[in-house]
Amino acid sequence: MGAVDIITFGCRLNAFESEVIRRAASAAGLADAIVVNTCAVTAEAERQARQAIRRARRDHPGRRLIVTGCAATLAPEKYAALPEVDAVLDNDAKLRVESYAATGATPAPMPRPSPGRSGEGAEPAPTGRARAYLQVQQGCDHRCTFCIIPYARGASSSVPIGAIAERARNLVAAGTCEIVLTGVDLTAYGADLPGRPNLGQMVRRLLAAVPELKRLRLSSLDPSEIDDDLWAVFARDARLMPHLHLSLQAGDDLILKRMKRRHSRAQAIAVARRAREARPDVAIGADLIAGFPTETDDMFRRSLDLVEECGIAFLHVFPYSPRPGTPAARMPPVPPAIVRARAARLRQAGAVRLQNELSSRIGQSGEVLVERAGLGRSEFYALVEISDDNPLGNIIKAQFIAAETGRLVGALVR
Fold first, then answer.
1. What phi and psi, each to the nearest 5 degrees, are found at residue 369?
2. What whole-number distance in Å separates Cα of residue 44 and Cα of residue 91?
3. Residue 122: pLDDT band by 50, 70, 90 thresholds?
């Protein structure tokens, strides 16, 4: 009997939960199985998941195949009906040992999660890896018109600060140098906890409670909800990495309003400016959606211009994909060919801006976390090519001597 293989789609939270799944399945004694952890953020993500399910069954006809994640939570009956699938687990059940204990039967699809439950017991398995994801928040109380995820993840819930610190210590003790805090709506952290601690307070207390943690990084942030405490700790604590990833989605105010976002174009630019004032070495990342319903050429141009105005070095582009049940799916659509063309233009703009960012770092020195042989990650998130003789998990000092496509080249500073 072989091990459990996990195929993961989607966000960093799903990547974190895949490690929890691996540990839960192992504790249950599950073996010789494949778990597909799906995403529902776009129709393309679901298409890729279905394709992976078919391929997994074709390549491994004798192994048990379990499907979970957001897509499986939203439409369990659809995945249970696939002939390749042996079991379906929702986002709550996938984190529990007992869900994998009785895999000899063919279970019915599990019920949808109760609000906030799926984050409570999720604890990372110490892996000894250089970087690790740590879930601190789950669910979302907002209803952006394009997004189906709140229906799959439930209401916002937060992990208490004490539990976060304990889990962080376990990860560091297992060899982790950098922890990435993840959540569905990270800046909503703490609103459901006693005393309502905000994200900045939690980050400050975590860094104080775990002084042995060398690097802390944040996943996606809502620009309308970054609190003053977070700005303060970002400005003064070098262990919080100089890299902010912003959930921008668009650069046109009317489109932002139709998306039911809570920030304006001007606020997005102001956040990027404030980040650079606090940490001149910061690099900005962002999400942008191309071809949202009703988007005109002028509206798209404002999103395209935002890449340069905010200095977005690490750009994630999502061609708009209608999700049944969301308000945006009922809005007048942009023709698919135009959506694809706009996404391509955004990606090209992002590639140019990344190369400019990397070129501007040539001659500088910085600390690089060795993630795998010959490759590391800078403090500002850029990939750095380094010599192969640096031990994995080490943090080395390197001078950036060249910029290649999508990455820097670093020389060890002795």
1. -90, 120
2. 20
3. low
Question: Which residues lie across from 246 on neighbouring strands?
Answer: 221, 286
Average pLDDT, the chain: 90
* Cα-based torsion angle of the residue sequence 289, 12, 286, 271 in order, rounded to the nearest 10 degrees: 130
Q: Where are the domains of the chain?
A: 4-100, 114-241, 243-359, 365-412
Fold of 114-241: Transcription Regulator spoIIAA (3.30.750)
Phi, psi (rounded to 5 degrees) for 400: -85, 115
Indicate the CATH number of 365-412 among 2.60.120, 3.40.190, 2.40.50, 2.60.40.
2.40.50
Q: Which CATH number fits domain 4-100: 3.90.650.10, 3.40.50.10490, 3.40.50.12160, 3.20.20.70?
A: 3.40.50.12160
Which tokens sit at 10?
């989607």
Window from 9-13, 133-137, 271-275 with minimum mean pLDDT: 9-13
What 3-state class would DSSP assign to 252? coil
Q: What is the CATH number of domain 243-359?
A: 3.30.750.200
CA dihedral 218, 223, 228, 234 (to 10 degrees): 30
- Asked, colleague to colleague, whether 4-100 and 365-412 share their fold, the answer is no
CA distances from 276 to 198, 279, 282 (A): 22, 5, 6
Give helix 199-209 / helix 161-173 axis angle, nearest 10°: 40
Which residues neighbour 236 within 8 Å (Cβ) at sequence distance 6 or greater?
A: none
Specify the amino acid at residue 132: A
112-148 burial by CB neighbour count: b if 16+ within 10 A, else e? ebebbbbbeebbbbbeebbbbbbbbbbbbebebbbbb
| DSSP E strands, 260-326 | 283-290, 312-319
Strands (E), 197-303: 215-218, 243-249, 283-290
Identify the band that residue 364 occupies on the pLDDT scale cut at 50, 70 and 90.
very high
Q: What are the residues whose beta carbons fall under 8 Å from the beta carbon of 293, sequence distance 6 or more? A: 258, 320, 322, 328, 331, 332, 333, 334
Q: What's the first-to-final CA gap in the chain, in angstroms?
A: 47
